[in-house]
Specification:
Strand 2 and strand 3 form a beta hairpin. The radius of gyration is 20 Å and the shape is globular. It is of the alpha+beta class and 365 residues long. The C terminus is likely disordered. The strands form 4 sheets. Strands 1-2-3-4-6-5 form a 6-stranded antiparallel sheet, covered by helices on one side. Strands 7-9-10 form a 3-stranded antiparallel sheet. The protein has a two-stranded antiparallel sheet with strand order 8-11. Bound molecules: adenosine-5'-triphosphate and magnesium ion. The site of adenosine-5'-triphosphate has 20 residues, from strand 2, strand 4 and strand 7. This is Protein kinase domain-containing protein.
């Protein structure tokens, strides 16, 4: 088990290092809690992600997130990193505030789906976000609708966040040239069952194409509201990912999706995905006159207002997180669950079964 040295005690009004004042909790995930904070100097608001100090240093993952986010600061599709540090009981990272999560938008729309043109616009930006991340030398390994958000002010920009499961795949050789890291023969399960690529179920080392599989599955769900394996147990999910034809998988999706999945299936760990070609194919699916800068339908159309109070719309995520409900049986939104023992990986993020190659922490990168 990943055991904190002590529980994190944070209250509204707490001042951190004379730089941030805690306002309220924004969210909580496997890795820790996220708070809304006021910036003391410079003014404005930000988000602070907090992780307790762990008994075993290998269980601490926020420092990896800070490391990754720092290296990604030239990308338009990630938060600005505003600060990071450590107190007696926790590590923290302060970043710019994001707007609505893509997962929430879909669930709060009347039909629980986003229109095809808007989905295509989100997908194009995701491909770019992943290209930026991969070129900086990292794979995300948990691409899913609840790790994507729109900007708070610039609501047309898509952001990728939550780098807690990221892995460095490009390393500098003796001459300083970045080289693709050798894949391990078998690695522990990292990701979320519903959105991970078939390779991940087979414990293959995750490459750049696997992140794009995650983006594709996320976008199929976004535009159709479903996936062929949604609500199925993990084993069935794995089998369905293998046997569903590309046509069936991409039924009712924009035309480019089936071409993208066809290409992705042929890619190997070593291959650089054809990002530009994917973006061009997606762009060709946009109806004439639709611009990347147009407001999305939930900001303009009375028929597409987001419903905050629809409990039914919320149940999907809540059930997924609790692992109950017909739609989500055995399918906890299980970032980081290991196949070997079914334990939450926050309990064994870096350690793991003897069969598996160890995960790297920053200490041995
Ligand atoms: N920059 C941000 N601005 C606003 N809210 C944020 C920001 N970062 C995270 N959050 C909120 O906090 C939640 C948890 O964040 P994040 O996904 O990074 O953590 P996690 O512990 O890895 O979560 P999980 O395991 O559920 O994916 C998000 O779903 C979101 O609601
Ligand atoms: Mg997350």
């Amino acid at each position: 088990m990943a055991t904190p040295i002590a529980p994190v005690k944070i209250n509204t009004g707490d001042k951190i290092k004379d730089q941030f004042v805690v306002k309220k909790k924004l969210g909580e995930g496997a890795c820790g809690q996220v708070f809304l904070v006021d910036l003391i100097q410079g003014k404005g608001k930000a988000a602070m992600k907090v992780e307790p100090l762990m008994k075993d240093k290998l269980d601490e993952i926020l420092k990896m997130e800070v490391y990754v986010l720092k290296k990604l600061q030239s990308s338009r599709h990630v938060c600005r990193l505003l600060g990071s540090g450590k107190t007696d009981t926790y590590t923290y990272m302060v970043m710019s505030l994001l707007g609505k999560e893509v997962a929430d938008i879909r669930r709060r729309l009347p039909q629980r789906k986003i229109s095809a043109p808007s989905t295509v616009r989100i997908f194009i930006q995701l491909v770019k976000a992943l290209q930026d991340m991969h070129e900086a030398g990292f794979v995300h390994r948990d691409v899913k609708p609840s790790n994507m958000a729109l900007g708070l002010k610039n609501e047309q920009v898509v952001y990728l966040f939550d780098f807690g499961l990221a892995r460095q795949i490009l390393l500098a050789d003796a001459s300083g040239k970045l080289k693709l890291r050798e894949p391990r023969s078998k690695s522990q399960f990292r990701g979320t069952v519903r959105y991970c690529s078939p390779n991940v179920h087979q414990h293959k080392e995750q490459g750049r194409h696997d992140d794009l599989f995650g983006a594709l599955y996320a976008m199929i769900e976004t535009v159709t509201s479903s996936l062929p394996w949604k609500g199925k147990p993990k084993k069935e999910t794995c089998a369905l990912k293998e046997k569903t034809s590309d046509q069936d998988l991409c039924k009712n999706c924009p035309k480019s999706f089936v071409e993208i999945v066809g290409t992705l299936r042929k890619l190997k760990y070593q291959d650089t995905p054809p990002y530009v070609q994917f973006m061009e194919k997606l762009r060709a699916d946009l109806p004439k006159g639709v611009k990347m800068t147009d407001p999305f339908e939930w900001n303009t159309s009375p028929q597409s207002q987001l419903d905050d109070n629809n409990n039914d719309n919320k149940s999907d995520r809540e059930n997924a997180e609790r692992g109950v409900g017909a739609d989500t049986v055995n399918e906890v939104d299980e970032s980081i669950i290991t196949e070997s023992n079914g334990e939450s990986a926050s309990s064994s993020k870096n350690g793991g079964g003897a069969d598996y190659a160890p995960e790297d922490t920053l200490d041995n990168l």
